[in-house]
Design goal:
- The complex is a heterodimer of chains A (157) and B (725).
- With 157 residues, chain A is an alpha+beta fold.
- Chain A has 6 helices and 5 strands; from the N terminus they run E-E-H-E-E-E-H-H-H-H-H.
- In chain A, strand 1 and strand 2 form a beta hairpin.
- In chain A, helix 3 crosses helix 4, helix 3 crosses helix 6 and helix 4 crosses helix 5.
- The longest helix of chain A has 14 residues.
- Chain A is globular.
- By secondary structure, chain B is an alpha+beta fold.
- Chain B folds into 3 domains: 201 residues, Aldehyde Oxidoreductase, domain 4 (2-Layer Sandwich), CATH 3.30.365.10; 148 residues, Aldehyde oxidase/xanthine dehydrogenase, molybdopterin binding domain (Aldehyde Oxidoreductase, domain 4); 328 residues, Aldehyde oxidase/xanthine dehydrogenase, molybdopterin binding domain (Aldehyde Oxidoreductase, domain 4).
- Chain B is globular.
- Chain B has 19 helices and 28 strands.
- Classes of the chains: A alpha+beta (157), B alpha+beta (725).
Chain lengths: 157, 725
C-alpha cells in the first residue's frame, strides 16, 4: 500500500509493504543516500535517523509504524542548532576518515546533545556505543561532541 | 546522469567532485565537458591547460587535480592534492578533485607497478612524481606570463594560482594564462626544479581534509549510493560453502513478492532483482534456495589448524639464513621455543560489498568503489569477452577498504548477474554475505626457537611461518621459488642483530577458504610474532624489555622511536594495581614505529586498554594531522582484531555473520591514543597500516607484564587470564 511520510519537512509517498524498513524507503524509493546501510539488524548505527527527535535505527523501523511522525535525516540535521554545531565540530576536529559511518554518528550525537546539552564521557559512551566506526575515529568523535557542546577536552585523558 | 554527484556548488570554497561519473572517458579526452558543472561547461569547450595527467586548468582559473590513488579514509586525496598544489602554487581552497580513470600507463603506483591503492604506498610512490607534475605546470605558467610581459621568467614567481612580477607589480591569474601555457612545449618532469624542504608552505602543515565537508552532511557518494535511471536493485545469496552451487530455487514464490522483477541464477549464487532492497530480500527469502555444498562441505577450522601444524613440521623455503642457527641453538645456554597462531580475519568495512553494473552487448559500465580499478577493468573484460576500452569503471569514494577492495570478486559476480538483466542493476550484499564471503587474512601457524648465551643475549633465532600465500594468487610473478615475500615481511628482517638466524616459509593452502590482503598485511602477522617472542627472550634473560631490545638494535631511527615511546609513556613509572605496560618496535612500510600500551586485566580476565603511546618516524610528513588520524585508526583496527577478531569454519561455512559475532571495537572500549612524531628529512614512509601491526604485541606484552601470562594465539582468550585473580 502507499504510505505518506514526512521527511525533513517534506511529504513523500512510497508504495511499499508495511514491513519495509525506513532505510530502504529513504535510499531506494526516495533516493536519499545520506542514510547508510551497515548491518541491517541495528548493530552498527550507520542508518540512524530521528523519528520525532528520537534516534532510531532506520534498518529496523518499518514504514508502517511511522504514521505522521517527523523524520529527520543527515541531509537536514544541519538545520538544527545541535546538528549544525556538530557538523562544524566534526570538521574542526577532523573526525572523518572513510566517512561512511559518520552520517549515523552525527545523528546519534545530535540526539544526545538535544537530550543532554553538556554530556559527560559516560553520557557519550552510552549514547554513541551503538555506532560502529571501522576506521577508528572514536577519540575524535568524543572530542567533537565535547567541542560542539561548548566544552573542549574530555573527562579523562 | 541523475546520480551525477553534486559537482559541488560553485560558491563552496572547496570543489570536490566525488563519484567520478565519467570514469573511463577522462583519459581519452581531458577536456570532456561532461566532467564539469554546468557553469563551467562553456570553459570546457575552450582550450584547457593540461600539462600532464594530473592537472587541468581552465580559462576561468578552475584547477582540477586528478587523483591516481583512491580515498578510503586514509586521507590520500588531501595528501596528493598537497603534493601537487605545493609545486603548482595553488591553494587547497582553489582545487577540485576527480577520481582518475583506470590507466596503468598514466596512474600506476611506482612501488606496486599498477594503479592500485595498497601497501601504504601512495605517498611513498607519488612523493616525487606529483611534486614534479605540479612543478611542470608552474614552470609553464610562469613561462607563459614572462613571454606575455616580455621579461625573464626568472624574475617572476607563482603564488596562490597567479604569476607575479614584483618589480612591476603585475599579476596574471592561471586562468588568464591557461591558453598560452597550453601552447608551450612541456618540459621533462625531471628537468624542473623542485622546492626545497624549507620552502614548503603546504607540505608539513595540518591541512584540512578536502573530502570532509561532503562526509558530514550526507552528500558524499560511495559506490553503494549509485542511482541511475531505470536501475533495479538486487539482493544476492552466494553458496554458503565455497565452491557450492544452488540446486533448487523457488522462482515463482520470489516473483510473487511485490516489487520483484526477476530471479537470476548463476553457478555460485542466486540474485533477486527488484524495485528496492526490501522487496529483493523478501524475494530471496521466498526463493528458499537449496544448495549442493560441493567438495568443501566438511571443512572446519580444527582440520585447517591440524593441516598447518603438520605443514610447519616440514622445512620451508628459506627467506633468510645467516650463520648456523641450528648449531648455535644446540650450543646455547638456554633455549626458548614457542608456537604462535593468528586467525582468519574478515575486513568488515562499514560499506558492505556492492556493485552497480549496466551490461550491454557492446560495453559494460561499472559503478563501484575499488582499490584496484585497472585490475577490475581487466577482470570484467575477461568475464565478458569485451575489450578493456569497452569496460568503463566509475570509481567512487570507498566506505572502507582495508584490503577487501583490492579484489574484484564482487564486481565479477555482479557482472555475471547483470548480464542476465536488462538495464542497470545495483547488487548490494547483506552484512552476512559480506562477512561470510569475504576473502580472508590467512591463518598463520608460526614456530620459533631462540638460543641465549649465559648473559641472556640471543645467539640463534629461527622462525618458520606456515600459511596461505596471497602473492601466489594475487601477484604470481612475485611468488618466486615458493617464497611469499608478504608472508615473511618483518620476519626475515627484524630490527635486531642476531648472529645466527634462519627464517623459512611453508606454503599451505587450506581448502574452501579464499585468502587476501588485510590492513597491515605481512607486518600485522609477523610484528606480533617477532615482538612477542622478543619479549619472551627479554623475560628469559631477566632484562627490561626496552633495554633488552636496545642492546640488539643499531638503527638510529629505530632506537629513536623506541626511546621516544618509552619517554612519553612514562616507561618504568609505577602503575595502579593490575595494570602493565608493553612495548613493540618495528620497521615496516618505510616507517619506524614504537608503541607502548597500558593495559588493565581484571580479576575475571577482562581487559581494558587504557592508553597507547605511539612514536613515529615516517620521514618527511606531508599532513601531520593525517598521520595522527591514521595512527589512531590503524591502532584500533589492529586492537579490534587482537581482542575479538576470528573467522572460523564449520561444515564448510563461516560461523560469523554480523557485528554481534564478528565484533568491532566501540567508543566505550576505545583507549586514549597519543601520537608523537620524530622530525625527519628522510623520504616519506607509509603510515596507514603500520600501527595496525604495532599495537597487538604492545598489548599482549602489557598483559604479560601484569599477569605473567603469555598470549601466543589470537584473538586474546580472556578465559586464560582469569587465573590472574
Amino acid at each position: 500500500m502507499a504510505f505518506t511520510i514526512n521527511v525533513n519537512g517534506t511529504t513523500h509517498s512510497a508504495d511499499v509493504d508495511a514491513d519495509t524498513p525506513l532505510l530502504w524507503v529513504l535510499r531506494d524509493v526516495l533516493g536519499m543516500s545520506g542514510t547508510k546501510f551497515g548491518c541491517g539488524i541495528a548493530l552498527c548505527g550507520a542508518c540512524t535517523v530521528h523519528v520525532d527527535g528520537v534516534p532510531a535505527r532506520s534498518c529496523v523501523t518499518p514504514i508502517g509504524g511511522i504514521g505522521d511522525k517527523a523524520i529527520t535525516t543527515i541531509e537536514a540535521v544541519g538545520k538544527t542548532p545541535q546538528g549544525k554545531a556538530l557538523q562544524q565540530a566534526w570538521l574542526d576536529v577532523e573526525v572523518v576518515q572513510c566517512g561512511y559511518c559518520q552520517s549515523g554518528q552525527i545523528m546519534s550525537a545530535a540526539a544526545l546533545l538535544t537530550a543532554t546539552p553538556r554530556p559527560s564521557d559516560a553520557d557519550i559512551d552510552a549514547a554513541m556505543s551503538g555506532n560502529v566506526c571501522r576506521c577508528g575515529t572514536y577519540q575524535r568523535i568524543r572530542a567533537a561532541i565535547h567541542r560542539a557542546a561548548g566544552r573542549e577536552g574530555t573527562d579523562h585523558a | 546522469m541523475p546520480d551525477q554527484p553534486m559537482v559541488s556548488q560553485l560558491d563552496r570554497r572547496r570543489f570536490l567532485k566525488v563519484g567520478a561519473a565519467f570514469g573511463g572517458g577522462l583519459l581519452i579526452n581531458l577536456a570532456l565537458p561532461l566532467a564539469l558543472p554546468p557553469a563551467w561547461a562553456a570553459a570546457a569547450s575552450s582550450p584547457t591547460f593540461a600539462p600532464n595527467a594530473f592537472i587541468r586548468i581552465d580559462r576561468q582559473g578552475g584547477v582540477t587535480l586528478v587523483m591516481p590513488m583512491v580515498e578510503m579514509g586514509q586521507g590520500i586525496y588531501t595528501a596528493m592534492a598537497m603534493l601537487l598544489a605545493e609545486e603548482l602554487e595553488v591553494g587547497l581552497d582553489q582545487v577540485r578533485l576527480e577520481h582518475a580513470p583506470p590507466n596503468d600507463a598514466l596512474y600506476a603506483n611506482s612501488i606496486l607497478h599498477i594503479q592500485t591503492t595498497g601497501l601504504s604506498a601512495s605517498v611513498r610512490a607519488f612523493w616525487t612524481p606529483l611534486r614534479q607534475a605540479g612543478a611542470v605546470g608552474r614552470t609553464l605558467l610562469i613561462e607563459a606570463a614572462a613571454r606575455q610581459w616580455g621579461i625573464d621568467p626568472g624574475t617572476c614567481r607563482a603564488e596562490h594560482g597567479a604569476v607575479l612580477h614584483a618589480a612591476s607589480s603585475r599579476r596574471l591569474g592561471y586562468g588568464e594564462l591557461a591558453v598560452a601555457a597550453a601552447a608551450l612545449p612541456v618540459p621533462a618532469r625531471d628537468s624542473v626544479t623542485l622546492k626545497q624542504l624549507k620552502d614548503f608552505t603546504l607540505i608539513g602543515t595540518p591541512a584540512k581534509r578536502l573530502d570532509a565537508p561532503d562526509k558530514v552532511d550526507g552528500r558524499a557518494k560511495f559506490g553503494i549510493d549509485t542511482r541511475l535511471p531505470g536501475m533495479k536493485i538486487a539482493a544476492i545469496a552466494i553458496s554458503p560453502v565455497f565452491d557450492g552451487k544452488p540446486i533448487s530455487v523457488n522462482e515463482a514464490a520470489a516473483l510473487a513478492v511485490k516489487g520483484v522483477h526477476q530471479v537470476v541464477r548463476i553457478d555460485e549464487a542466486v540474485a533477486v532483482v527488484a524495485d528496492h532492497m526490501w522487496a529483493a530480500r523478501k524475494g530471496l527469502k521466498a526463493a528458499a534456495v537449496q544448495w549442493d555444498d560441493g567438495p568443501n562441505a566438511k571443512v572446519d577450522s580444527a582440520g585447517i589448524i591440524r593441516q598447518l601444524e603438520e605443514a610447519s613440521k616440514q622445512p620451508g623455503v628459506v627467506a633468510r639464513n645467516e650463520g648456523d642457527a641450528a648449531t648455535a641453538l644446540a650450543g646455547a645456554a638456554q633455549q626458548i621455543d614457542a608456537v604462535y597462531q593468528l586467525p582468519f580475519l574478515a575486513h568488515a568495512a562499514m560499506e558492505p560489498m556492492n556493485c552497480t553494473v549496466h551490461a550491454r552487448k557492446d560495453g559494460c559500465d561499472i559503478w563501484v568503489g575499488t582499490q584496484a580499478p585497472t585490475l577490475t577493468q581487466a577482470m570484467v573484460a575477461e568475464t565478458t569477452g569485451l575489450p578493456k576500452e569497452a569496460v568503463k569503471i566509475h570509481n567512487h569514494l570507498l566506505g572502507g577498504g582495508f584490503g577487501r577492495r583490492l579484489d574484484a570478486d564482487g564486481t565479477v559476480l555482479a557482472v555475471k548477474i547483470a548480464r542476465q538483466v536488462n538495464g542497470p542493476v545495483k547488487i548490494v550484499w547483506s552484512r552476512e554475505e559480506d562477512i561470510q564471503h569475504d576473502m580472508y587474512r590467512p591463518y598463520y601457524y608460526d614456530r620459533l626457537s631462540a638460543g641465549l648465551d649465559t648473559n641472556g643475549k640471543p645467539v640463534a633465532w629461527t622462525h618458520r611461518i606456515s600459511g596461505s600465500s596471497i602473492f601466489a594468487r594475487y601477484v604470481p610473478a612475485l611468488f618466486k621459488n615458493g617464497l611469499d615475500p608478504d608472508a615473511v615481511e618483518a620476519a626475515a628482517e627484524p630490527p635486531y642483530a642476531f648472529p645466527n638466524i634462519h627464517v623459512d616459509y611453508v606454503r599451505a593452502e587450506p581448502p574452501g577458504i579464499p585468502t587476501a590482503f588485510w590492513r597491515g598485511v605481512g607486518a600485522t602477522h609477523n610484528v606480533f610474532v617477532v615482538e612477542s617472542f622478543m619479549d619472551e627472550l627479554a623475560h628469559a634473560a631477566k632484562r627490561d624489555p626496552i633495554a633488552y631490545r636496545k642492546a640488539l638494535m643499531a638503527n638510529p631511527r629505530a632506537l629513536g622511536v623506541l626511546t621516544l615511546a618509552a619517554q612519553k609513556s612514562g616507561w618504568g613509572a609505577p602503575l595502579p594495581a593490575r595494570r602493565g605496560r608493553g612495548v613493540s618496535v618495528q620497521f615496516a612500510f618505510g616507517s619506524y614505529l614504537s608503541q607502548v600500551a597500558e593495559v588493565e586485566v581484571a580479576a575475571d580476565g577482562s581487559i581494558k586498554v587504557h592508553r597507547i603511546v605511539c612514536a613515529v618516524d615516517c620521514g618527511i610528513v606531508v599532513n601531520p594531522d593525517t598521520i595522527a588520524a591514521q595512527i589512531e585508526g590503524g591502532t584500533l583496527f589492529g586492537l579490534t582484531a587482537a581482542l575479538y577478531g576470528a573467522i572460523t569454519l564449520k561444515n564448510g561455512r563461516v560461523e560469523q555473520g554480523n557485528f554481534n559475532d564478528y565484533r568491532p571495537m566501540r567508543i566505550n572500549e576505545s583507549p586514549v591514543i597519543e601520537t608523537h612524531l620524530v622530525k625527519s628529512a628522510e623520504s616519506p614512509g607509509g603510515i596507514g597500516e603500520a600501527p595496525t601491526a604495532a599495537v597487538t604485541p604492545a598489548v599482549t606484552n602489557a598483559i604479560f607484564a601484569t599477569t605473567g601470562i603469555r598470549i601466543r594465539t589470537l584473538p586474546i582468550d580472556v578465559s586464560l587470564l582469569k587465573s590472574s585473580a
